[in-house]
Design brief:
The protein has 18 helices and 27 strands. The strands form six sheets. It has a seven-stranded mixed β-sheet with strand order 2-6-5-3-4-9-8, with helices on both faces. A seven-stranded antiparallel β-sheet has the order 20-21-24-25-26-19-27. A five-stranded mixed β-sheet has the order 11-10-12-13-14, sandwiched between helices. Helix 2 packs parallel to helix 3, helix 2 crosses helix 5 and helix 10 packs parallel to helix 11. The protein binds 1,6-di-O-phosphono-alpha-D-glucopyranose. It catalyses: alpha-D-glucose 1-phosphate = alpha-D-glucose 6-phosphate.
Length: 542
Amino acid sequence: MRIVATTPFDGQKPGTSGLRKKVKVFAQPHYLENFVQAVFDTLGPVPAGAVLVVGGDGRYHNRTAIQTILKMAAAHGFSRALVGQGGILSTPAASCIIRKYQAFGGLILSASHNPGGPEEDFGIKYNAGNGGPAPEALTDAVYARTRSLTEYRLVDAPDVDLDTLGETQVDGLTVQVIDPVADYADLMESLFDFAAIRSLIAGGFRLRFDAMHAVTGPYAREILEKRLGAPAGTVINGMPLEDFGGGHPDPNLVYAEELVAEMFGANAPDFGAASDGDGDRNMVLGRNFFVTPSDSLAVLAANATLCPAYARGIAGVARSMPTSGAADRVAARLGVPCFETPTGWKFFGNLLDAGKVTLCGEESFGTGSDHVREKDGLWAVLMWLNVLASRKDSVEAIVRHHWAEYGRNYYSRHDYEGVDSDAANGLMAHLRAAAPGLAGTVLRGYTVALCDDFAYTDPVDGSVSTAQGIRVLFTDGSRVVFRLSGTGTSGATLRLYVERYEADATRHDQPTQEALADLIALADDVAGIVARTGRDAPTVIT
Ligand code: G16
């Protein structure tokens, strides 16, 4: 074992989902090592036989980081490391493997939907033994440890062959290179009616899945093309590349342009979906039809009993605060609780572990269930396919029927990416200061019922999270929400979330931006977005 002297780096505070920085930052001597040592120090000595799961989304620097982590895991006393072949593990697959093999925890290497390559982003996060992202108390402790670190430990050993299945010894640590897909694909097959989906596809139902040259390619090919019989070519951009082919692996209407063009073009397939860099996000499209993530959660909750895994009903639903209230209406109808948490999948972990909820979702293209402790892109795709196979209706018809039954929550998110940090912080500070005085005022015809900075008390462990986003709630149930992203790596990203409920089914056909126009204008009145950021339009609208 070698002990290396080091000094702390500034800014190793995990964001919404782990530590994300430019590759150049991570590639500095000691940078990754410091963070990993801080995680290990925070965890303390591991029990005999402890297993660590290691893998990532295949982006640039993934393999280098894995070699370092394995040498440090050996020095920390782990007995076994399970590593995905080629260094590949999607985030939900890592969660599945941690749970299935009762690992102590896992280190997942990903910057999710952020671009990859030498000039782009890298990231790392620790997931606990439940398979879920480390809770805030742990990430705060890790950050504190990074501030006082003076040394890290690793063993001197040759690099491990990550491409060949099998075991290698690294100074007391058994490194087992595993098939990254099989366990996850088996889990999916146990949850859904694969026979029904197979016959839907065999009957001529056409689907397209865009893996965006990120981690889900091998998973989607195995599940959709091999196990479910979709024709070869159903999965596009299926080869994981270190730079995601130069693309931005974020499954939204702007970045998944190839899929969007096909789904909104002539002779479009019946169903289209995309996933992100590490496979936890999903976007679902019908022919000429976009399903908002908030609606997707609501529709899946309303139809859950059509899927074998959820046939006996769901215990409850959870959504992040900025996610629309569409799922709340389904939960109310089902007579199950609906929890509103801060942004970040880590906040769902306790609710899932305690059996309080079965389904969770976020507006940021995240949907999942208690089958793992991460959001899960392919899971959402399969649940939709199961519902489609059972309902024998189109995506659009299912969503429209849902709106007719529950009303429609018009919803949109406007992102202002790469905004000057001081300007973004100034905008939020201005809103915080203005918040207490807004209640009762009338803005463009909307009366403010409440304006606050969202805080959350975890109903399971009582932990409190404050300053999770400014929300302006109106008396008619509409709202605008402002928060700064916790996943970016340069400047700040301001997110504006806008929602309006429309019960009248004859008014469910307005274009979303039109339906929300007054609220969008009002948001600028309140926050001064244009004046403060210098941007006259958002970078991305979803
Ligand atoms: C992460 C978290 C999600 C969160 C999303 C958006 O997603 O895991 O729970 O909703 O970030 O965060 P922000 O608005 O702070 O950028 P991912 O897919 O990046 O891991």
